[in-house]
Amino acid sequence: MEDRTVITTSVNEAWAQPGSLLDLYLESFRNGEDIAHLLNHLLVVALDARGFERCKAVHPHCYFLNATSVDMSSAKPFMSPDYLELVWTKLTFQQRVLELGYNFLFTARSIIPPNTFSLHFFINESEEQSMDGRSIRTATWCGFATRSGTSPCTPT
């Protein structure tokens, strides 16, 4: 995109299997009204080797985030040491994306883009909105960040 915004999501082996949510997620971009072009801005971050191989089979923009000693092919209990390492690994990756001069929108595979989806960011405005219309300043989780290093999720 002209504003250097990328859409990111992450997968592991389980989430990337044929017929999984990754397939449905990609298909939603292909079939949505005037949003197929956004696939060129979608980066799928694979957390394990099999997830990466499957990603490469179905999407041209895949990145293998092989930066942890944890086996990422299965779910991790919330707040366990493995879970926290996964969280910090993803955050480090997102920081690197910002350092490279990109903005990003992190999405979950279970959030399917609506038929008409557009990315209109007003970085200099005082507030942004999440896809469900809530103020992201009041949301407990947010996938928005800017290359300035500030997060519109953090109240000012």
Structure description:
It is a single chain. With 156 residues, the protein is of the alpha/beta class. It has one domain (5-145). It has four helices and five strands, in the order E-H-H-E-H-E-H-E-E. The model is unreliable at 115-156 (pLDDT under 50).
The helix tally amounts to: 4
- CA gyration radius, whole angstroms: 16 Å
Order of strands in the sheet with the most strands? 3-2-1-4-5
Helix/strand order, N-terminal first = EHHEHEHEE
Taken from the alpha-carbon principal axes, the silhouette is globular
How far is it from the N-terminal to the C-terminal residue, by CA?
A: 28 Å
Index terms:
alpha/beta, 5-stranded mixed β-sheet, 28% helix
Topology summary:
Elements: E1 5-11, H1 13-16, H2 21-31, E2 42-46, H3 49-58, E3 62-64, H4 81-99, E4 103-106, E5 144-145
Parallel strand pairs: 1-2, 1-4, 2-3
Antiparallel strand pairs: 4-5
How would you sum up this structure in a few lines?
This protein has 4 helices and 5 strands, in the order βααβαβαββ. The chain is α/β, with parallel strands linked by helices and 156 residues long. It has one domain (5-145).
